[in-house]
């Protein structure tokens, strides 16, 4: 009996410590994904995986395809999309929120000081009906404006496309997520400010506008990391991932020059200096999903009241927020 018990325990320990053949991260080109590159570069998860790779999603449709196909273990994801997938009975749990402020307006008009000042103007916006469009519309509706009637909205498939429209002077205003804002300023030599008037200006901060209309802090639980599929049940793997993601996020914040170079090395559409600039303008703070639950609930309640479809028709249940056993 003792021999059988010993064999069982020994075999269980071997299985528990067995490396995965591969761990796959998924994410957009935005800041929430950038700590992944440091994790891969430093072999941070070599104790639990033989190989670690990154898969880029360029728009929410590609994100959803990666989830449905079971192609990723950990996903950098807008929080409302994670809630939406959870409500559609996908195997997904939110681990953390790390991006609390990444959205802003960029314009050729330095005199624009609020979203109301854009009334009647054409604005390029990526990701229709997803972040950042959701935040933009909620602020305007709270201000008594009608987004589709009071503004000329030009929807594009990604922040890169919107940024390119600005650079090519095909639009004068855009709603972007960092690092696209900082990269656009760099590419047009608008930053650092040149002697002649800059071509583009960093305009309205959407987090500050949100705080004003909803009487809250200038931060929003916009994006974080979710665990997917069978990995949801692998507590040891999740714990190691969380430890290393938190470390790499801190490294990213503390080393903007090196972080910019690393991000540009992995994503050729990025500009190293632009990424480095963007870190100062992005509210990055690692908070476990359980600890961010109240902020997330407040955010989701606003979205649910306005347009339930953005979070899958209902508030996510408590098991959406990952909790270690």
Would you kindly provide a written description of the structure presented here, covering whatever features stand out?
- The protein is of the alpha/beta class and 325 residues long.
- It has two domains: 171 residues, D-Maltodextrin-Binding Protein, domain 2 (3-Layer(aba) Sandwich); 112 residues, 3-Layer(aba) Sandwich (D-Maltodextrin-Binding Protein, domain 2).
- Helices cover 42% and strands 19% of the residues.
- It contains 13 helices and eleven strands.
- β1, α2 and β2 form a beta-alpha-beta unit.
- It is globular and about 60 Å long.
Summary of the model, kept short:
The chain has 325 residues and is an alpha/beta fold. The chain has 13 helices and 11 strands.
């Amino acid at each position: 009996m003792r021999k059988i018990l010993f064999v069982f325990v020994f075999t269980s320990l071997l299985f528990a410590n067995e490396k995965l053949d591969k761990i796959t991260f998924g994410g957009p080109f935005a800041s929430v994904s950038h700590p992944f590159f440091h994790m891969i570069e430093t072999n941070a998860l070599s104790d639990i995986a033989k190989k670690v790779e990154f898969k880029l999603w360029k728009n929410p449709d590609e994100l959803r395809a990666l989830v449905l196909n079971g192609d990723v273990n950990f996903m950098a994801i807008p929080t409302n999309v994670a809630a939406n997938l959870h409500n559609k009975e996908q195997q997904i749990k939110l681990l953390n929120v790390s991006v609390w402020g990444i959205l802003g307006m960029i314009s050729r008009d330095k005199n624009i000081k609020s979203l109301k000042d854009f009334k009647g103007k054409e604005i390029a916006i990526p990701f229709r009906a997803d972040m950042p469009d959701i935040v933009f519309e909620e602020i305007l509706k709270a201000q008594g404006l009608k987004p589709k009637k009071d503004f000329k909205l030009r929807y594009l498939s990604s922040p890169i496309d919107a940024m390119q429209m600005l650079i090519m002077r095909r639009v004068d205003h855009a709603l972007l997520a960092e690092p696209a804002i900082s990269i656009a300023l760099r590419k047009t030599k608008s930053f650092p400010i040149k002697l002649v008037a800059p071509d583009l200006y960093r305009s309205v901060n959407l987090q500050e506008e949100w705080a004003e209309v909803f009487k809250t802090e200038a931060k929003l639980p916009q994006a974080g990391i979710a665990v997917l599929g069978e990995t949801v049940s692998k507590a040891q793997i999740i714990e190691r991932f969380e430890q290393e993601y938190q470390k790499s996020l801190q490294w990213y914040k503390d080393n903007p020059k090196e972080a910019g170079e690393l991000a540009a090395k992995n994503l050729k559409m990025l500009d190293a200096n632009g990424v480095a600039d963007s870190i100062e303008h992005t509210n990055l703070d690692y908070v476990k999903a359980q600890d961010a639950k109240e902020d997330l609930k407040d955010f989701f309640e606003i979205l649910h009241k306005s347009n339930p479809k953005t979070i899958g028709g209902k508030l996510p249940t408590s098991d959406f927020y990952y909790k270690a056993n």
